[in-house]
Amino acid sequence: MSCVTTAEREVNNFMNKISIKLRVTAWYTLIMIAISAVAMTAMIKVSRDMIVRESGARTVRAVNNLSHVIEGRFNRKMPDDAQKQKPDFSSDKEIPDFRFFDQGVHLAVYDADHNLVEGVMPFEFADSIPLTDDKIETKVYSGEQYLVYSKSVENSDGERRWITGVVSIDNEGRMMGSMITTNLVLTLILILTAAIGGYLIIKRAFRPVDIISRTAKEISESSDLTRRIALHGGNDEIYRLADAFDTMLDKIELTVENEKQFTSDASHELRTPVAVINSECEYVLECAKTVDEAKESVTSIKRQSDKMAKLITELLTISRMDRNTLKTNFERIDISELVGFVCDEQEEIHDCGITMERDIEPAVYAVADHMLIARMFINLISNAYSYGKPDGTVRVSLHKNDGKITVIIADDGIGIARENLPKIWERFYQVDSSRNNESGSLGLGLSMVKWIAECHGGKISVTSELGVGTEFMFVMPECEE
């Protein structure tokens, strides 16, 4: 059993080393050979049957033709109407020799005692020919097959003559075999030509695959993610595969660039509080002379430490989001109550003269993760306060319609330029860096908002105008009571 397994493994290893072009060519060549072999076998069998049937029919026709000649000779010798029904074998008029070889059939006339009267058989032992009236028989003479057909005629005196026809089946078969051999040679030449032509066609068809492989290897060795396969001029499966690879490379390049930017931004955000903490620690150790000065430095250290802790927490959350390992707990919750609670909390936190206007439809339910959806609303409303103008207004509305829940959070603050709108979902992007630094924002909130919205099967969109304000709209499925 192990030997068989080892042999199969060696065959598989050998096949894996052969190129796909050769394997495909070999497979369809074997298929053509198998089909040709089946067709040739069927043709030989059918040809043999056809030879037997056609040879038998020719033998019968030839014997009947000779029988008519003999009866015609009798009619010329016997004008009496009473004698016209039987041939007269006493006629001395000989039948020409060519009459005894008709349509490839040897013909002869025998008397009742099996004596050859006229004609010549193609063998020396004519006496062994069976004389069976109107019946085709197959006989073997000297290892060769023959078809034999006999027909008897009788004169008025009761004298009988046998007209016998003989044709060699093997001789006909040899002629057919010669033709089959010729066809076989031509078929082999055709298969060889088709195999060579097919290989060239497959090689040409697989040329884009070689380009894909070579380009992928060069990208891997050089780490140049800006390279593309860039196959053009076709729309078959291989060209679509190349386009799919290019699209994948676009996404990989974008992901790598985002990760580089993310690492750079995270390092920058962490470096600032670390520098402040080190500076304040050095001040306390070297310069602080009173408790109040030490407390002031410790307070600054605590503030920067909190900022670092918040950044690390958000980075950890985003990392879990990217790896889809963030634990979620979806349940049926009252979204109206949750939004109202977040609005109350944000009003207390942001005591800056900005007025909040609410239009919240009661008893609107959805299946959601309570902590995540609350965090999304907190980030959006907090941003509205952060970017709102002094003594301005923050508007929060919630309504359901046609099985959808729509939450709109708008401000009348500084707004966002149109070209910057797609960037706000990027990590660490800050519309107004000075204001974000004052409020402790890290530029991670909106990227988390988008992920949470998509996690709940919803969509988040934004419209904004500089100097007029910004409006975020979140739409998610409603859960019926």
Write the layout of secondary structure elements.
Elements: H1 2-17, H2 20-77, E1 101-102, E2 105-111, E3 116-119, E4 135-141, E5 144-154, E6 160-168, H3 169-205, H4 207-222, H5 237-286, H6 291-322, E7 330-334, H7 335-349, E8 355-360, E9 365-369, H8 370-387, E10 393-401, E11 404-411, H9 433-439, H10 445-455, E12 459-465, E13 469-477
Extract low-pLDDT stretches. 434-440
- Report the oligomer: single chain
Broad structural category: alpha+beta
Question: Major sheet: size, sense and barrel closure?
Answer: 6 strands, antiparallel
3D structure, described in words:
The chain has 10 helices and 13 strands. A hairpin with a 3-residue loop joins strand 12 and strand 13. Helix 2 packs antiparallel against helix 3, helix 5 packs antiparallel against helix 6 and helix 8 runs antiparallel to helix 10. The two termini are 65 Å apart. The protein is rod-shaped, with a radius of gyration of 52 Å. The strands form 3 sheets. Strands 1, 2, 3, 4, 5 and 6 form a 6-stranded antiparallel beta sheet that branches. A 5-stranded mixed beta sheet has the order 8-10-11-13-12, with helices on one face. Strands 7-9 form a two-stranded antiparallel ribbon. It has 481 residues and is of the alpha+beta class.
Quick description:
This protein has 481 residues and is α+β, with helices and mostly antiparallel strands. The chain has helices at 2-17, 20-77, 169-205, 207-222, 237-286, 291-322, 335-349, 370-387, 433-439, 445-455; strands spanning 101-102, 105-111, 116-119, 135-141, 144-154, 160-168, 330-334, 355-360, 365-369, 393-401, 404-411, 459-465, 469-477. The relative contact order is 0.06.
